[in-house]
Amino acid sequence: MKIAIINGPNLNLLGKREPGIYGNEPFEDYFLKLKQLFADVELEYFQNNSEGNIIDILHEIGFTYDGILLNAGAYTHYSIAIRDAIAAIKTPVLEIHISNVHAREEFRHKSVIAPVCKGTIAGLGMKGYALGINYFL
Ligand code: DQA
Questions:
Q1: 74 Cα: distance to centroid of ligand 1 (angstroms)
Q2: How many CB atoms lie within 10 A of CB 110?
Q3: Most CB within 10 Å of its CB: which of 58, 88, 91, 99?
Q4: 22 carries an active-site annotation
Q5: Which residue's C-alpha comes closest to atom 12 of ligand 1?
Q6: Does residue 32 sit within a domain?
Q7: Residue 116 lies in a domain
Q8: Which three-class secondary structure state does DSSP give residue 118?
Q9: From atom 13 of ligand 1, which residue's Cα is the shortest distance away?
Q10: Position 55 in a domain
Q11: Could you tell me if residue 136 is inside a domain?
């Protein structure tokens, strides 16, 4: 079972970025825990701040992986190009948000990628990634 996590813009700053919203844990630390929790899964982690690079990653892995957990960050709310990339690939994509986007600013309530994703996990903190992996298993 091959599963990838793709984190988009500003998520490289997890641990430092708005800790009241996103917590204190760097994603690299949490990823080590995920690797231990899901020792039998081939887990890959990508992070990129650029829309085009995220699209390239989706194209590269989206025909061979069994599942993708995508936290597209702010691109979630307006990137039709990322939406089209998700629609173009074969691998199912789960939309992940650490924060409860629906309890935040109005511009975060809309997701342009949600209709082409298998489902959405939002507001459960880092645990959302573990829950997403469990779904694919
Ligand atoms: C986020 C929510 C987005 O609105 C925001 O732009 C992010 C992170 C989340 O994980 O809660 O960068 O995707």
A1: 6
A2: 11
A3: 58
A4: yes
A5: 73
A6: no
A7: yes
A8: coil
A9: 73
A10: no
A11: no
Please tell me the distance between residue 7's alpha carbon and the centre of ligand 1 in angstroms. Answer: 10
* Model pLDDT for residues 92-109, shown as the tens digit of each residue: 999 999 999 999 999 999
- pLDDT digits 0-9 by tens, 24-40: 999 999 999 999 999 99
Residues forming beta bridges with residue 94, ordered by sequence position: 69, 119
pLDDT lower than 50: segments of the chain: none
Cβ neighbours for 15, distance < 8 A, ≥ 6 positions apart: 23, 24, 25, 26, 27, 29
| Angstrom distance (rounded) from CA 37 to CA 40 | 9
Q: Domain of 115: which CATH number?
A: 3.40.50.9100
Which ranges of 65-104 would DSSP assign to H, the alpha helix? Answer: 80-88
For a substitution probing ligand 1, which of 6, 30, 71 has the most ligand atoms within 8 Å of its CB? 71
What's the whole-model pTM score?
Answer: 0.98
Q: Is the CB of 37 under 6 A from ligand 1?
A: no
